[in-house]
Design goal:
By secondary structure, this protein is an all-alpha fold. It has 5 helices and no strands. The chain has helices spanning 2-29, 38-47, 65-90, 100-122, 135-160. It is globular, with a radius of gyration of 16 Å. The two termini are 13 Å apart. 28% of the residues are buried.
Length: 161
Amino acid sequence: MFTDIVLFTLVVGIGSTIALDLWGVFTGKIGWMPGTHWPSVGRWIQGLPAGRLVFDGSDTRPFTSSEAATGWIFHYLIGLGYALVIPLVWGTDFIAAPTFLPFFWIGIVISTLAGLVILMPGMGGGVFARKLPNTAGMIAYVLVAHVVFAIAQYLLALMLS
C-alpha cells in the first residue's frame, strides 16, 4: 500500500511536472508565452523569511544557482504534492482504477487557482494577473498549461494502473 502511494506520487508527480515544463518550452518557442522562470520563483521564496512577500523585479542582480535550485525544487515538490493528494483524498484503490475527475479537480482547478492566487501575486503580477498588461492572455496560458498538467497526471496514472 505505502509502496503504491510512493510509486504513484513519484511517477505522476514528476512526470506531469516534466510535461508542464515541456509545454512551457513549446509555448515559448512558438511565441505564445514561455514557462515560468523558476530562478525568479527561487528568489521570491528565499525572500519570504525576510518579509519580502512579492518579487517585484527591482533586484536586478543575476540569479544565483541557489535561487535557481530553490525555484526548481519548489516546482517539483508542488508537482509531487498534487500527485500525493490524489490517493490520500480518493483512496489507495484509486491507484488501480484511476478516473479523470480527481485530476480535473487537483490538476486543473486547484493548481490553476494556486498559480493565479498565490504564485502570480507573489511574482508581482497581482491576483489573477490583474497587474499584467495581458491579464486574459496570462489566465488563458495558466489554464491551458494546467490542463496539460492534468492530462499528463491522468495518462501517467493510467499507465501505472
